[in-house]
């Protein structure tokens, strides 16, 4: 999925360590993808208060709703796109030749590296899920682009119906087959009563509710905001107020400063300007075949210089 805003904000990212255990609700902003009949999403990363959770740098949650998601070919650099569905189906095409339908419970993972283009389309109907980005560290940001589809992921179940699916990284003794470049975790949690999950104390973590409502560490979390929990926790306690589905994100604090603008992650204004120029000139990103329509044009760069900075609280 793309950032389709015609005047995208600069997202300046980086950390200087993570705070200890905290309880910080990050309210998202609503964005419509693909015109008036397009898909409405709630974007909680990056937010005004917090730009990253580990290497997770972008989070759009959407649905459930009747919508038509149609995102034309567009570029990415320096990141991984993580597609996760609860309802519906989405067809992914990219410039390395991948064409893959994703269904609920499956993972589409695209690593852009030095540059890739892709498109996404859903059939009109109910759709519900999340699109996330993971920033690549400097050592890997120029790797060759590639795509992974994982139809089966590690699943831990409880007799009362609670489940944990490990989407990326490691959790509760299970390891996802998805490729990662920094220590992190992404997991879907379904719970109908109460559940305690072991966490890595050196990770910072955040939770978002996709459906239902849950009590997290004594506070109520309903769909919409992202709950940032900080670092230093060895366990996460969840009590379902009604049957709930949540996403847990975490990772080792990302110590590099990055510039994220439109669909690019770089390290400087010059990086971003070069990525944009190459996309507009048709260089370096390849071609997406099979999509019926033109590719996205890049927005104009802002008048001010894009600068990497530390994390803003």
From TrEMBL:
<dbReference type="Pfam" id="PF05726">
    <property type="entry name" value="Pirin_C"/>
</dbReference>
<dbReference type="GO" id="GO:0046872">
    <property type="term" value="F:metal ion binding"/>
</dbReference>
<comment type="similarity">
    <text>Belongs to the pirin family.</text>
</comment>
<feature type="compositionally biased region" description="Basic and acidic residues">
    <location>
        <begin position="1"/>
        <end position="10"/>
    </location>
</feature>
<keyword id="KW-0479">Metal-binding</keyword>
<dbReference type="InterPro" id="IPR003829">
    <property type="entry name" value="Pirin_N_dom"/>
</dbReference>
<feature type="region of interest" description="Disordered">
    <location>
        <begin position="1"/>
        <end position="20"/>
    </location>
</feature>
<dbReference type="InterPro" id="IPR008778">
    <property type="entry name" value="Pirin_C_dom"/>
</dbReference>
<feature type="domain" description="Pirin N-terminal">
    <location>
        <begin position="39"/>
        <end position="134"/>
    </location>
</feature>
<dbReference type="InterPro" id="IPR011051">
    <property type="entry name" value="RmlC_Cupin_sf"/>
</dbReference>
<feature type="binding site">
    <location>
        <position position="76"/>
    </location>
    <ligand>
        <name>Fe cation</name>
    </ligand>
</feature>
<dbReference type="InterPro" id="IPR012093">
    <property type="entry name" value="Pirin"/>
</dbReference>
<feature type="binding site">
    <location>
        <position position="74"/>
    </location>
    <ligand>
        <name>Fe cation</name>
    </ligand>
</feature>
<protein>
    <recommendedName>
        <fullName>Pirin</fullName>
    </recommendedName>
</protein>
<feature type="binding site">
    <location>
        <position position="118"/>
    </location>
    <ligand>
        <name>Fe cation</name>
    </ligand>
</feature>
<dbReference type="Pfam" id="PF02678">
    <property type="entry name" value="Pirin"/>
</dbReference>
<keyword id="KW-0408">Iron</keyword>
<feature type="binding site">
    <location>
        <position position="120"/>
    </location>
    <ligand>
        <name>Fe cation</name>
    </ligand>
</feature>
<dbReference type="InterPro" id="IPR014710">
    <property type="entry name" value="RmlC-like_jellyroll"/>
</dbReference>
<feature type="domain" description="Pirin C-terminal">
    <location>
        <begin position="192"/>
        <end position="283"/>
    </location>
</feature>
């Amino acid at each position: 999925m793309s950032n389709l805003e015609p005047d995208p904000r600069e997202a300046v990212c980086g950390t200087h360590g993570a705070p200890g255990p905290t309880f910080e609700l990050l309210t998202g902003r609503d964005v419509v993808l693909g015109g008036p009949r397009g898909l409405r999403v709630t974007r909680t990363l990056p937010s005004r208060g917090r730009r990253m959770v580990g290497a997770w740098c972008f989070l759009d949650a959407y649905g459930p709703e009747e919508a038509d998601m149609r995102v034309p070919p567009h570029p990415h650099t320096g990141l991984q796109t993580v597609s996760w569905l609860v309802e519906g189906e989405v067809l992914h095409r990219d410039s390395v030749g991948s064409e893959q339908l994703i269904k609920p419970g499956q993972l589409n993972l695209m690593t852009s590296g030095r540059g890739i283009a892709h498109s996404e389309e859903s059939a009109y109907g109910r759709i519900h899920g999340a699109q996330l980005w993971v920033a690549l560290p400097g050592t890997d940001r120029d790797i060759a682009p590639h795509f992974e589809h994982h139809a089966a992921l590690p699943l831990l179940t409880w007799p009362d119906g609670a489940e944990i699916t490990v989407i990326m990284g490691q959790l509760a003794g299970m390891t996802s087959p998805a490729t990662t470049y920094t220590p992190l975790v992404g997991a879907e949690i379904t719970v109908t009563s109460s559940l305690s999950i072991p966490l890595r104390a050196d990770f910072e973590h955040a939770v978002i509710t996709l459906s239902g409502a849950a009590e997290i560490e004594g506070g109520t979390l309903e769909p919409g905001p992202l709950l940032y929990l900080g670092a230093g926790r060895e366990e996460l306690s969840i009590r379902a107020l009604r049957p709930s589905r949540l996403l847990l994100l975490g990772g080792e604090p990302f110590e590099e400063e990055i510039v994220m603008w439109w669909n690019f992650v770089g390290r400087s204004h010059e990086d971003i300007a070069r990525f944009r120029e190459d996309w507009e000139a048709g260089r370096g990103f390849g071609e997406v075949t099979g999509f019926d329509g033109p590719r996205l044009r890049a927005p104009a760069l802002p008048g001010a210089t894009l600068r990497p900075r530390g994390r803003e609280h």
